[in-house]
């Protein structure tokens, strides 16, 4: 508690200063205007409105009592993972058994990876994979969510292919949760990030920080734990008794308890800090709008004085220690990032080709609407987007990380992946509106539909290429600044530490809260290197090596009225082209909405070659003799029996000659048990019913 108050108190003082500066920059931007090049693609404001990311499927989860339990999974639009006792509990909106906020976690797929991270938790204590089981997994395909401070979570699935798909889902949850600061907050977000950076620089920590993850309270908790955690480890670690695994488990429990307490305190203290700053907003805004010209003039005067002092030393450092490495850093960033954006284009193209094929083979607008419902959320489908994300994960700054104090490339990888997802969603959203505009009020056959799809596809791909180039160039510039500026500040700050305070005397007292010498110093250093960075990116664009457009190039044949379409609501394909009588496949209730169904982005993870997942709680199978579909429920079967059920289902009928006897309970639609029969006689029942499998014998 004392450490949390100390750290948040020091941070709060810096935040209050940066809040006034951020408000000044926001009002100045509003008055002067500005901005980058206009996007050619439309941007969806609330892409996940009325959507859940994932709903369905069961995996085995290790609970606190060290027992493995089957749990039903639901991932809401917040990307928090909730797990329920079963599907019925979720549909009834019962309280989940647990919820995981994935900010700061790493998704692992092997015990070897996990033990490498665990061994760093307590110095001098290293457990080997074969020295005793730290966690006894239910299957040989584990999934682990690891956090340096919070509780670890363990899952198990049955096959390697399932493991890969679940891993993609967990990674997407981590990726989104880590991106917790909204760019739409023009004051709070820059105030928080600048305050966090300046606070850490005062402690001697320059460069990127891997634990800048989640919302502000979580980041503050990570800041407290950064110093508190090693101190507690050195104090408590030597006193832990027992075997290696037991000591590690005990330390993890202690770490989790401390982190929970710190997080609860930072949550309350951050809310109080924001509230205190917002009380001053109205007064500060009035001063800014009244004296903006004088404040700008005063700031430019101070900047000129600091520039004259700093630029000679900064230029020398830039020429000797930065310029020789610019091209190599840029190339290390450009190669995997450009491959990732190219893969986004290819995935989008392949999906549209599939739509064209299916439309041409029959189905008309009804079939088209069905496919468009799925494509509309393509950017948020972690399994389909995984190939794009994997390209960027090859980004490697080895050899440059130590020189420029970059802790790891994960910050840049996750940022590039978020940008890729945004560009995919923009492309899909633009295609939806263009296609909807082309189809509205027209009756078209299969071939005409395909021509319309191809026409819209070509227009969107051309716009995507332009926007992709613009977004990548901006990302490269920002990444270079994130790498180089902290390095230069670390080298220059000691030289000017004593000289900077005297410049504060040049600022009028009324304007001193909006003009801080530390910020002006950083801006001068930023200006000294910006020209070289812009030139390096420009030269890369001229070479056309990574399909970057030159700054002077303007997209021709653009649609001047396209952005008017973006003001329209998202296209509801099911309602407009399928009559609105069908629920999208896999729709499930969630989030307490009983009357309104939420459409989900990812359907049940199911292996194509295996038929149904063995532990799926409910499955529809076709009946014979023209009867309707049965609903099959598995209850209490062994793993071998479940595999046999899957094999029998693959025959396409339950009435087959097979050396097995499958006993079932038949229920009427009202839930009354009708009879227990052999599965081979099911073809004789032409009515709809639920089938509960309860026994199987050879």
Automatic annotation (TrEMBL):
PROSITE patterns per record: PH_DOMAIN
Similarity comment: Belongs to the Niban family.
Pfam families: Niban2 (PF26086), PH_Niban2 (PF26089)
Domain PH, residue spans: 51-175
SUPFAM superfamilies found in the cross-reference section: PH domain-like
Stated name of the protein: Niban apoptosis regulator 2a
């Amino acid at each position: 508690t004392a450490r949390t108050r100390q750290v948040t108190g020091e941070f709060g003082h810096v935040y209050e200063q940066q809040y006034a500066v951020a408000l000044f920059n926001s009002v100045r931007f509003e008055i002067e205007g500005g901005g980058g090049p206009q996007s050619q693609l439309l941007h969806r404001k609330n892409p996940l409105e009325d959507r859940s990311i994932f709903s369905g499927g069961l995996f085995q989860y290790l609970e606190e009592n060290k027992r493995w339990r089957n749990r039903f999974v639901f991932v809401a639009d917040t990307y928090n993972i909730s797990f329920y006792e079963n599907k019925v509990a979720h549909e009834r909106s019962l309280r989940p058994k647990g919820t995981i906020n994935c900010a700061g976690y790493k998704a692992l797929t092997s015990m070897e990876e996990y033990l490498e991270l665990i061994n760093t938790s307590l110095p001098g204590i290293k457990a080997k994979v074969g020295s005793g089981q730290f966690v006894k997994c239910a299957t040989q395909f584990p999934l682990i969510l690891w956090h340096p401070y919070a509780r670890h979570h363990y899952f198990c699935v049955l096959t390697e292919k399932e493991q890969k798909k679940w891993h993609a889902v967990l990674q997407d949850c981590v990726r989104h949760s880590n991106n917790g600061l909204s760019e739409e907050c023009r004051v709070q977000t820059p105030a928080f990030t600048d305050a966090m950076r300046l606070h850490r620089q005062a402690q001697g920590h320059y460069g990127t920080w891997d634990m800048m993850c989640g919302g502000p309270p979580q980041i503050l908790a990570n800041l407290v734990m950064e110093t508190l955690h090693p101190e507690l480890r050195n104090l408590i670690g030597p006193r832990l008794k027992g075997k290696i695994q037991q000591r590690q488990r005990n330390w993890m429990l202690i770490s989790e308890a401390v982190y929970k307490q710190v997080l609860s305190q930072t949550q309350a203290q951050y809310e109080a800090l924001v509230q205190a700053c917002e009380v001053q907003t109205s007064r500060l805004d009035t001063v800014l709008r009244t004296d903006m010209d004088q404040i700008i003039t005063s700031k430019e005067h101070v900047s000129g004085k600091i520039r004259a002092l700093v630029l000679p030393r900064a230029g020398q450092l830039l020429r000797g220690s930065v310029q020789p490495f610019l091209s190599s850093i840029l190339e290390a960033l450009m190669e995997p990032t450009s491959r990732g954006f190219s893969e986004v284009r290819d995935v989008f193209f392949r999906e549209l080709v599939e739509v064209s094929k299916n439309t041409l083979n029959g189905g008309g607008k009804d079939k088209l609407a069905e496919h468009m419902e799925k494509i509309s959320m393509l950017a948020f489908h972690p399994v389909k987007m995984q190939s794009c994300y994997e390209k960027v994960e090859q980004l490697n700054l080895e050899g440059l990380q130590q020189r420029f104090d970059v802790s790891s490339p994960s910050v840049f990888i996750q940022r590039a992946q978020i940008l890729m997802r945004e560009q995919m969603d923009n492309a899909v959203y633009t295609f939806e509106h263009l296609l909807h505009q082309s189809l509205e009020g027209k009756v078209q056959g299969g071939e005409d539909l395909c021509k319309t799809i191809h026409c819209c596809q070509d227009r969107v791909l051309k716009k995507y290429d332009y926007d992709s180039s613009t977004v990548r160039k901006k990302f490269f510039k920002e990444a270079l600044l994130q790498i180089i500026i902290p390095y230069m500040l670390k080298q220059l700050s000691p030289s000017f530490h004593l000289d900077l305070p005297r410049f504060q005397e040049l600022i009028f007292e009324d304007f001193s809260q909006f003009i801080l010498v530390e910020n002006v110093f950083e801006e001068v250093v930023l200006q000294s290197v910006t020209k070289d960075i812009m030139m390096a990116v420009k030269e890369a664009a001229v070479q056309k090596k990574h399909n970057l457009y030159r700054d002077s190039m303007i997209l021709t044949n653009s649609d001047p009225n396209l952005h008017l379409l973006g003001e329209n609501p998202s296209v509801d394909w099911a309602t407009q082209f399928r009559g609105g009588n069908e629920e999208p496949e896999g729709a499930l209730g969630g989030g307490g909405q009983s009357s309104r169904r939420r459409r989900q982005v990812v359907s049940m993870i199911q292996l194509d070659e295996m038929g149904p997942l063995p532990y799926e709680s409910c499955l529809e199978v076709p009946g014979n003799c023209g009867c309707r579909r049965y609903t099959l429920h598995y209850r209490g079967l062994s793993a071998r029996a479940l595999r046999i059920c899957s094999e029998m289902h693959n025959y396409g009928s339950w009435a087959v000659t097979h050396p097995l006897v499958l006993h079932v309970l038949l229920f009427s639609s009202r839930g009354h048990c009708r009879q227990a029969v052999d599965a081979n006689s099911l073809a004789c029942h032409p009515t709809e019913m639920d089938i509960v499998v309860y026994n199987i014998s050879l």
